[in-house]
Amino acid sequence: MGTRRTTLTTIRLDLRLADRAKRALGAKSRTEAVHRALEEVVHLDHFKRVMLKYGGKLKFEGYID
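^ that's the sequence the OP posted. Answer follows.
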């Protein structure tokens, strides 16, 4: 991976939600939780776009619970 560009910014967070996200994501800080959550949203968006484009056209061989 490359170097991340970061900036210091102020946002209003629901602290209970931020702390729940921190625990759910295994993050060490709220900042890390926010970064991970943003990455998840970007990956989910990409996944949705791929599914819309190729949905029903690909074979899946694997295990689903």
